[in-house]
Amino acid sequence: MMKKLLIILLAVMAFSVSAKAQIRDTCINVWQCEINYAYQFSLTDMKAKYNRNPSTMGLGLSFKTKHNWIFGFEGSYLWGGYDDGGNSILRGIMTQSGNIINTYGEYGSVAMTQSGFYVGLKTGRVFAFKKPNPNSGIVLNVGVGMLEHHIRIENRSNNTPPVLGDYKKGYDGLRNGIALRGFLGYQFLSNKKLINFYGGVEYTFAWTKSIRNYDFNLRGKDGTLYHDSMIGIRVGWILPVYRHAPEEYYYY
Q: What is the model's pTM?
């Protein structure tokens, strides 16, 4: 996943590195290609499930109008460590010592991590400052999309049947649902070249439900409506694609 994001970033940079424009004197229409990272703190039902804080790496594409309105799309991959707090989801297939037996009668090696994604649309506005130009300032975005997450269960030796194939689907707690997202921060577009970035506080709230037909721990389908949320700091690099370079000076 990270390699794919890097390839996309390099392709966008190759396309837009020659797009230099003087924007010191005017507010312009501009496409903004974005790559970003956020460190989040799990809240509500999401915290109860993972007991750890997730990271996200994302890509986005937005259009900023000459009136500083923003419309765009964003997607991010979510990952992180998993801490069961001593109450493992695999307790039903563990020995008294807390291990799982593999096909050789030995202790199997099982790793669990947090995994998921968010995709959605966003809209917002830049409240510009006079400096460095009218395209930079406080940015406020709101969005709607879908959040999905689960516990990723891995047995790299592929020799522990209780957590392989469809069996692990009964433990991973995969769930998704409609999500709302808000962002408040600062956006900086330089007068020229590639020094363009943003950063701020982000909050995500989602109503999610399990999409698995059977949960081994519950011995049935999980029909609970969960309230999952995260709050954190997101920073990103903006690669602007200008349609043309506006004139720095005007004559009448």
A: 0.85
